[in-house]
Amino acid sequence: MINNILLLLLGLALLNGYMYLQQPLMTFFPDATIDQTPKEWGLRYEDVLLDTEDGVRLHGWHIPHHGSKQTLLFFHGNAGNISHRGDTIEIFHRLGLNVFIFDYRGYGKSHGKPDEKGVYKDARAAWHYLVNEREGRPKDIILFGRSLGGAVATELAADVQPGGLILESTFSSARDVANAVFPVLSRLIFLRYDFDAAKHIKRVRSPVLVLHSPDDEVIPFHLGEKVFQGANEPKSFVKMRGGHNSGVFMSQPGYGRALGAFVSRPTM
Description:
The protein contains 9 helices and 10 strands. The protein is of the alpha/beta class. It has a single domain, classed as Alpha/Beta hydrolase fold, catalytic domain (Rossmann fold, 3-Layer(aba) Sandwich), CATH 3.40.50.1820. The strands form 2 sheets. An 8-stranded mixed beta sheet has the order 2-3-6-4-7-8-9-10, sandwiched between helices. It has a two-stranded parallel sheet with strand order 1-5. The model has no long low-confidence stretch (mean pLDDT 91).
């Protein structure tokens, strides 16, 4: 009996050790190759290099819209890099916004390796760039986070209180995702990441827009609903159509109208 218990504990320890080492590879899928630039999308842009508080050099693009005071700070998902977000960048540009999109550490031309604390520092470096170097007013900066980027944007928004927060196809926490996708295994392993958007959203005082599709095959719809339920007013929810990566296309034109109504609302 004792031997069986010891074997079980040893097995759990080995499983946790293996899964602990594998979690970065299961969470972050960076691509170092920049396939396109905004020039290929017909947009003017400026290459931007910025340093985080822990000395990591990040790369991004500032894409101006003539005469606009509003800037969208874009937090992309856990795969690819900034060169794979052209379709969404074009939507926000058509809505009259400047766009600043950057790569997390380890993605694209950004240095370092991604982890949770690191990408939060990356978010702050991007915010400080817009506020300090470009002299943007916080109320004129809208944060947009897709999927994993939604958790990063929410953590930042809780501290800086931007002009607005848009969350698309995001999740309430890493634990909730694990419980939904691996309901048995998730209860046996230690998670090294929190990405607890449901906790951070409670401290956000900015207007919030949440968009999610019931057909999302990656992030369950109810996790997006949980984020929305935890948000303070004013807030709104838009039900999209299509899968995790196709929803932005299948949900048109309502998707674009919802974004347009949110970014054009009166500000204090």
